[in-house]
Amino acid sequence: MRRYGKHTDEDDIRSRPNRKGNRPRTNIRPKHEDAAEGMVLTVDRGRLTCLVEDRIVLAMKARELGRKAAVVGDRVALVGDLSGQKDTLARIVRIAERTSLLRRTADDDDPFERVVVANAGQLAIVTALADPEPRPRLIDRCLVAAYDGGLEPLLVMTKSDLAPPDKLLELYGHLDIPYVVTSREELESKDAADRVREHLDGRMTAFVGHSGVGKTTLVNALVPEDRRRTTGHVNAVTGRGRHTTTSALALPLSGTDSWVIDTPGVRSFGLAHIDPTRVIHAFPDLVPGTEGCPRACSHDEPDCALDEWVAEGHADPARLYSLRRLLATRERKEGD
After folding, report:
1. Suppose 248 and one of 51, 72, 162, 196 were both cysteines; which one would form an S-S bond, judging by CB atoms 3.0 to 4.6 Å apart?
2. pLDDT (tens digit, 9 = 90+) per residue, 218-230?
3. Phi, psi dihedral angles at 112 (to 5 degrees)
4. Alpha-carbon distances, residue 309 vs 293, 299, 304 (angstroms)
């Protein structure tokens, strides 16, 4: 064994060559100060389609981002080939801080959350009044996800020619949610699209709904110049629709600075990731009454101060009922 003294000649020290011939690893990451800003329009098998100025650019996530993934609606910084020409590929090196986040899990026991959309200001919950039948529990779950993620809800009821909207309007009237009622004939004309468009100005809106409710038909009516999705039918036996949209897609609303995001039809909306304490913030009229609640109160237990506060006439009892109905969605199945 060879030993070295204090004053070792560097020529005597043997070093292991780098077999790959590349530079040694370092914790110093490039700043990419010249990166261009863009927005993710859709994601398909690790490839992200982004809008950079007025060009459509295909990109992939840079290794330095680690496990952090970009989703539709994300504001990102890109480097590399930004020409948008065929067979070119850019790199996403940064993801900007998100203003909102729509998330869901496969079910209430699934620990892995799935990010659906980022930076949307509004969630349009599309439900048919018939064919298929409305699923209030699924609507409730979408509402909870919207409130938790910082999105304002909009309720869009389709197929009013098959059933009246009265029952749903009565159920959600105390939540003060804006709504639009449409029929199949109106979707074929511009009437329904124009009424929905009034609620979309100046913001990014994600559309979610059960399969077969007419969500993609509505999006096609809003953005007729980009009818990239086909519409499906409802199974007469199961009452369920066929998935026709396979990935989320952001589309610009012509002549405005608004965006529409079409998302795949859902048959379940898990809330395992939801913090119940955040739902109360969607009820600002009830928040003052929580000051007397015990620590970590779920607002759905015997010692909750809201019962006495509402009984004293400070708020509408129907609002407290609506809050607790939403808080209980995690304990109920969507089809109940």
Report:
1. 72
2. 998 899 876 544 4
3. -100, 110
4. 10, 12, 9
